[in-house]
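Researcher: If only I could read backbone structure tokens as easily as an amino acid sequence. Walk me, if you will, through where the backbone shape changes along the chain. I have put the entry right below:
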Amino acid sequence: MYSLICASGLIGNVTYVNQTTAVSQGLAFVNSAGNAIMKVDNTTTIAPAPLVNRNSIRITSKDTYGAGNIILVDVKHIPYGCSVWPSFWTLGTGLWPNGGEIDIIEAINLMTSNQYALHTIGGCTLNTTGAQFTGKVYGTDCSTGSGCVVAETKPNSYGAGFAEAGGGVWATQLDVTGIYMWFWSVSRFFVCFRSGWSGADASFKARRYTRIHHFSYV
């Protein structure tokens, strides 16, 4: 179960609208193919001004998910291009970043690869010694502004390649031993799902000083 958020609380030229407005403006609907569509207004002509926002939507779950859960997201299209910042993430309870944040899908502008990241208070780091995941590490301290970041190395995880491949599927495992993430292009998902999952694309393993309890229910 999800609800629409009206106030953004984020940096960007966007105004998040409620459900009634989103439906009436065609920003949230189910198309003829049965796909759930969430989009930004791309039809209104807005007069030049010092600050120009476009209407869009943001949804948040009403339920919470702790260790022992797997989050699957199947996406057919993600917007890309200059000034675009799509994302799908979990957020712990309480004041940010005390409850932790897990970025599952996040990329901006003309990036061609998705990036995974964790955001926490101090004391949480990504251990790369003997790491068994396929992604490329760009940051190991989860308390910095960018967090501890692992970039996807499989092709077509964002941008034009993602669109041309027909979309993709992400899985995030929340476990007492750590947080693990996978990505498959839609053409590979069912093959890999049936044959068994190989090593994770991003692996944030828990250690004595990188504890899973940095994350509250998300």
Observations:
- The chain has two domains: 1-63, 65-218.
- The first strand starts at residue 2 and ends at 4.
- Residues 65-218 form a domain with the Jelly Rolls fold (CATH 2.60.120.200).
